[in-house]
Amino acid sequence: MAPSMGEHEIQQRIRLACGHGPVRLWRNNSGALIDQQGRLVRFGLGKGSSDLIGLRSVVVSPEMVGQRLAQFVALEIKTARGVVSPEQRAFLQLVDQLGGVAAVCRSIEAAQQALAPDPWPPGEQGNRAVDGGKD
Predict the structure, then answer these.
(1) How far apart are alpha carbons 91 and 97 in whole angstroms?
(2) What is the number of alpha carbons within 13 Å of residue 12 lying toward its C-beta?
(3) What is the DSSP letter of 65?
(4) Per-domain residue ranges for the chain?
(5) Is 128 helix (H, G, I), strand (E, B) or coil?
């Protein structure tokens, strides 16, 4: 990917390239604003939640062979020099510890690796940047 590409562009390309078949990805806008009545309105999953969230269909085995389950997905999108905040790291660690897919992605290839079937055993992903980039 071009080094000058911004986080939003990387995110859009990953969402379009990887959000099909057994995977669905959605943009998770997080933040707050003051509405027309002057009330504070918070949106998104919360501070530190990942840029792209979604579900990945998995088949559980051996006793549940053939049944499909949806596995929670959290992809934090960063540029080559982007830094993961402590809140983002904590969110990714929680998703990983609870058996979801959690990764820092700086390219489509990194997202594809993270979303591949069983890229690493649960709890061993360790919230690392799957493309070898700075996290």
Answers:
(1) 10
(2) 5
(3) T
(4) 7-115
(5) coil
Does residue 111 contact residue 14 with C-beta atoms inside 8 Å? yes
Mean pLDDT of 90-100: 92
What SS3 state is found at 53?
A: strand
Fill in the amino acid letter for 111. Answer: A
- What confidence tens digit (pLDDT) does each residue in 42-87 have? 998 888 999 999 998 887 778 777 777 889 999 999 999 999 999 9
The CATH label, of 3.40.1350, 1.10.3470, 1.10.1060, 2.40.30, for the domain at 7-115 is 3.40.1350
User: 26 pairs with which residues across the strands?
Assistant: 53
Residues 11, 20: Cα–Cα separation, whole Å: 15
Query: How confident is residue 121, by pLDDT bands cut at 50, 70 and 90?
Result: low
Q: Using 50, 70 and 90 to split pLDDT, how confident is the model at 130?
A: very low
